[in-house]
Design a protein that fits this description.
With 471 residues, this protein is of the alpha/beta class. The protein has 16 helices and 15 strands. It has 2 domains: 248 residues, Glycogen Phosphorylase B (Rossmann fold), CATH 3.40.50.2000; 209 residues, Rossmann fold (3-Layer(aba) Sandwich). Helix 2 crosses helix 3 and helix 8 crosses helix 13. The protein is globular. The protein starts with a strand and ends in a 6-residue tail after the last strand.
C-alpha cells in the first residue's frame, strides 16, 4: 500500500485532538504508513530549510518553523485577510496588500522544498485547505510526480468573487496541478465549473492569457461529516450528564436554544441574536420559557474585522438583555470560551433547538454534532442556514435564510412548538444522513478516489458526487 502524506497549515500536537477532523485524520494516518507535515506553530528569525520529525502518539510528524514576517504575510495576510473573506463572499472585508502574495508563495515553496526529500515515488499526498493551494505547483516544479490531492474545507467562491482575488488565475492554475480537488458541496463544484467554463484574461496582461487546463484534474464533491455514533455515546457520558444537570438546575423548565461557533464574521452571530430578539418581541408567550446560549470562543482576534464582530455581538447581547431581562430571568447567555467535546455533547443533547445559521460555510460540523447528540426518544430540532454546505445533505432541518431575521425567528417558533412525532421523523432522516456522510466515510472515499489504482478517463473530470458506501 502506498504511504499517505497529510499536509496542512498546522500539525497535530501532543494534546488530545479537539475537532472531529483532527481525530479522523489521525485515525486515517494511524491505519496507514506515512506522516503528517506542516508548520510547527513556532516563529523564528530564519525559516526552516529542513523539517524536524518527531513521534506524536504513534504518528510521525514533520514540522517547519516560519519567520514572523512570512507568517504575517502568508497566514494573517493573504490566507485570512484575502482568501478567507473572498471565499466567504465578503469582499468588503478583504484587505489587499501586494507583499502578502509573495509571502504566500514563499511559504508554499518552503513547504515543498522541505517535504520533497522525504517523499517516495509512490507516496500519495493529501493537501488540506486554502493556505496551501500552490503546494502541488511547487512540488511539480521540483520534480514530484506523485498523486497529489487537495481538499478545500471552506466554500469555493463565485466567479465574480474569484476575479477580485489578486493572482486568481495563478491560484486556479495551481489547483489544476492536483490530481483530485475535493469540495464540500454541489454549489462549490458549480462555482468551480463556472470559472472553468468562462475564464477571462486579466486586463493587465500583455497578451492573450492561456486558459487554465483542468483536463487532468478531477473535481468532486466529498461532504465532510463528524463521527455520529461516537458523539451519540459522548452525549450520555458522565461529563455530558454533569453539564446537563448543571444547566437544568440553572434553567428549570426553560427550553434551550443553542449556538456553538467560532467568533467569526462568517457565522452570522449578530443576525442570530437579532432573530432571537424578534422571537421574543413577536411571541411574548416564550418569555421566561426559553433561553439562548451562544458559545463563541474568539477566533483570529488579532485581525481587525474579527474584533469588530466581537464588539458588535457584545452590544447586541447587551441590548437584548436590557430589553427583555427580568430580575429572575435572563433571556440569553453569551460565553466567549471553548468547551471540551463531552460538555458540548451534553449541551447539544439538552437543547430543544440547535441554531446553526452561518452566512456562508463550507459544511459546518456543529450541525452534524448536534444531530448525533440528540435523545432519539425526545430529539431537538435543527434550524440550519441554507448557505451552509450541510444544507445539501440535511434537507429535513428547518432551512432558513440567515440574512432574513424574520424568517429565522419564525423557524425558531416552529421548532419550539413542533410536536414529538415530527421531531422524531426529522431526526431519524438527519441521523441517517449524518451516518452516510461520517468523517470516516469521507476520508476513505476521498483516498479511494486519489489512490494510484484509480483509473481516469480522458478529458475534464468534473461535477462528480462521490457517495461513500456504508455497510
Amino acid at each position: 500500500m502506498s504511504r499517505l502524506i497529510i499536509v496542512s497549515n498546522r500539525t497535530p500536537g501532543r494534546d488530545p485532538a479537539a475537532g472531529g477532523l483532527a481525530v479522523a485524520l489521525r485515525k486515517t494516518l494511524a491505519e496507514r504508513e506515512g506522516f503528517w507535515f506542516g508548520w510547527s506553530g513556532k516563529l523564528t528569525e530564519k525559516p526552516s530549510a529542513d523539517a524536524v520529525f518527531e513521534d506524536i502518539d504513534g504518528l510521525s510528524v514533520g514540522k517547519l518553523d516560519l519567520t514572523k514576517e512570512d507568517h504575517r504575510g502568508y497566514y494573517a495576510g493573504f490566507s485570512n485577510s484575502i482568501l478567507w473573506p473572498s471565499f466567504h463572499l465578503r469582499l468588503d472585508l478583504a484587505t489587499i496588500e501586494a507583499p502578502w502574495y509573495e509571502a504566500y508563495r514563499r511559504v508554499n515553496t518552503q513547504f515543498a522544498k522541505a517535504l520533497l526529500p522525504h517523499l517516495q515515488p509512490d507516496d500519495v499526498i493529501w493537501v488540506h485547505d486554502y493556505h496551501l493551494i500552490p503546494l502541488a505547483t511547487e512540488l511539480r516544479h521540483l520534480g514530484a510526480r506523485n498523486r497529489i490531492g487537495f481538499y478545500l474545507h471552506i466554500p469555493f467562491p463565485t466567479t465574480d468573487a474569484l476575479y477580485a482575488i489578486p493572482h486568481h488565475n495563478e491560484l486556479m492554475r495551481d489547483l489544476s496541478r492536483y490530481n483530485l480537488v475535493g469540495l464540500q458541496a454541489q454549489r462549490d463544484v458549480a462555482a468551480f465549473n463556472d470559472f472553468a467554463d468562462h475564464q477571462s484574461p486579466s486586463s493587465l496582461s500583455d497578451g492573450p492569457l492561456e486558459a487554465v487546463d483542468f483536463s487532468q484534474t478531477e473535481i468532486a464533491v466529498f461532504p465532510i461529516g463528524s463521527d455520529p455514533d461516537a458523539f451519540a455515546k459522548l452525549s450520555t457520558s458522565p461529563a455530558a450528564n454533569k453539564m446537563i444537570k448543571r444547566m437544568q438546575r440553572a434553567m428549570d423548565d426553560q427550553r434551550l436554544i443553542l449556538g456553538v461557533d467560532r467568533l467569526d464574521y462568517s457565522k452570522g452571530l449578530p443576525q442570530r441574536v437579532e432573530a432571537y430578539e424578534k422571537l421574543l418581541a413577536n411571541n411574548p408567550q416564550f418569555r421566561r420559557l426559553v433561553h439562548l446560549l451562544q458559545v463563541a470562543p474568539p477566533s483570529r482576534d488579532s485581525i481587525k474585522e474579527y474584533q469588530e464582530t466581537s464588539d458588535t455581538l457584545d452590544a447586541m447581547c447587551g441590548h437584548v438583555m436590557g430589553r427583555f431581562a427580568e430580575p429572575d430571568w435572563a433571556p440569553l447567555t453569551y460565553v466567549k470560551r471553548a468547551y471540551g467535546q463531552p460538555s458540548l455533547a451534553g449541551l447539544y443533547r439538552l437543547a430543544r433547538v440547535g441554531l446553526v445559521t452561518p452566512l456562508r460555510d463550507g459544511m459546518n460540523l456543529v450541525a452534524h454534532e448536534y444531530v448525533a447528540s440528540q435523545n432519539p426518544a425526545d430529539p431537538g430540532v435543527l434550524v440550519l442556514s441554507r448557505f451552509a454546505g450541510a444544507a445539501e445533505i440535511f434537507p429535513d432541518a428547518l432551512l432558513v435564510n440567515p440574512f432574513d431575521t424574520d424568517e429565522t425567528a419564525e423557524a425558531l417558533r416552529l421548532a419550539l412548538e413542533m410536536g414529538l412525532d415530527e421531531r422524531q421523523e426529522r431526526w431519524h432522516a438527519l441521523m441517517d444522513a449524518a451516518r452516510l456522510y461520517s468523517v470516516d466515510n469521507w476520508a476513505n472515499s476521498y483516498l479511494a478516489r486519489l489512490s494510484p489504482d484509480t483509473q481516469q478517463g480522458n478529458g475534464p473530470l468534473r461535477d462528480v458526487l462521490y457517495l461513500a458506501s456504508v455497510g
